[in-house]
Amino acid sequence: MRYIQGEERSQTVLFPESLDDYISDNNAVRFIEAFVDELDMVSLSFTHSETKDTGRKPYDPKDLLKLYLYGYMNKIRSSRLLEKLTHQNIEVIWLLKKLKPDFKTIADFRRDNSKAIKSVFREFILLCRQLGVLSGTLVAIDGSKFRAQNSKANNFTKKQIESMLSKAEHEINQYLSQLDNNDKVAPQASSMSKAELDEKIKLLQASMATYQKYLAEMEASGEKQISTIDSDSKLMLSHGNKEVSYNAQIAVDSDSKMIIANNVSNDCNDLNQLHRMGLTAKDVLGVDRLEVVADTGYYNPISIKICDDNNVD
After folding, report:
1. Number of Cβ within a 10 Å radius of residue 190
2. Are 141 and 294 in contact (CB under 8 A)?
3. 294 with 274: CB under 8 angstroms?
4. What is the mean pLDDT of residues 122-137?
C-alpha cells in the first residue's frame, strides 16, 4: 500500500537548539509579546503590577495578559483549557517562557483585571491608529442579542407576578375551604388530609412571599421585568423570538473592519445607543469629528441631537 508515512518513533531526532527556533518570525505570538511588553501595567492598574520585597512572588501580570490575549485570539475562554495549553502548546510555552500558571490563577487574573483589560483594548486601538490601520473617519454601529444563562421561566414581568399572586391566593382559599369542609363533615376517601392541605398552603404562601419580594425589587429599581439568575439580563426580541438576553453594541471601522468600541447593555432595543456608541468610538479614535452609520433601529431625535452637538455626524 502507498501511504504518506510518518517517522519512526525510535529514531533519534536533532531538535532545534532553542525554543525560539520553533516560532516563525511572522507568528502572531511575537506580536502579542511585543505589544504587551510595551504596556505600562502600573498606569493601566493591573493587580501585582508593583510588588513588595516580602511575601510570595506573584506571576508577572504581563505574562498572564499574554496568555489571556492568546486565548482571545484563538477563541479559548476556559481557564482550564488555557492551563492545559501551557503544558502542550508550543506557542504558549514560548510565549510564557515555560511558565505554567494554574487555572485558578488565570481565572482570578481575568476577574480582578476586567477594567484594566478594557484599557488594553483602548491601547491596541490607539496603536492601530498610529500605524495607519484605522481610517478613523467612518464607523458602523450595530447590536447583537446574546442569550443569558437565565431561562424564560426565571424571568418575570410585573403583570406576570400579579397574575401568579392572584392565582396562588385563589388556590390558598380553595385549600382553606377544603379544611373547613373537613372540619364539618367526614372527608371523602379521595380528599386530601389536613396535613397535606397544610403543606400545600405553606408552599403557596412561600411562593407568594417570593413573588411579593420580586414586586418590591421592581418597584424600587423602576424596572418592568426581573430575572432571577442573571439579574441584569432582560427578555428581548431577536429575529422574531423572545429570549432572555444582553444587548451587545459594536462599532466597526469602515476600512479595516476592526471593532473599535463595544459595550453591553440590558436595553431591550437600540434607541438610546447611537450617541453612547458614537461618542465612545470618537473618544477611542481620538478624532475631532466622526461619521457614523446605523440602521433605523437607532433612530431617536434626542440621541441624534447629542451626536450633532459632539461632532458625530
Report:
1. 5
2. yes
3. yes
4. 88
**For residue 23, what are the contacts with CB-CB under 8 A and spacing of at least 6?**
29, 30, 90, 91, 94
Residue 126 cell numbers, joined: 490607539
**What average pLDDT score do residues 245-273 get?**
93
Helix extents (H) in 102-193: 103-112, 114-130, 158-184
201 is written with which cell numbers? 398552603
d(CA 139, CA 278): 8
CB 59 within 8 A of CB 74: no
CA atoms lying within 13 Å on the CB side of residue 95: 30
- Grid cell 428581548 in the structure block, residue: 236
Model confidence over 21-71: pLDDT tens digits?
889 999 999 999 999 999 999 999 999 988 888 888 899 999 999 999 999
CB 51 within 8 A of CB 58: yes
| pLDDT for the residue numbered 13 | 67
Tell me how far apart the alpha carbons of residues 15 and 155 are, in angstroms, rounded to a whole number.
Answer: 58
C-alpha cell recorded at residue 152: 424564560
Give dist(CA 285, CA 240) in Å, integer.
35
Amino acid at site 227: S
Which of the 8 DSSP states describes residue 62?
A: H
Overall average pLDDT of the 198-204 stretch: 85
Residue pair 177/123 in contact (Cβ under 8 Å)? The answer is: no
Using one digit for the tens of pLDDT, what is the confidence trace for 11-31?
776 666 788 888 999 999 999
Instruction: Identify the helix (H) or strand (E) that includes residue 29.
Output: helix 28-37
- Cα distances (angstroms) measured from residue 142 to each of 78, 207, 248, 259: 27, 40, 9, 11
* Spatial separation of the C-alpha atoms in residues 148 and 229, rounded to whole Å: 9
* Distance of alpha carbon 53 from the chain centroid: 36
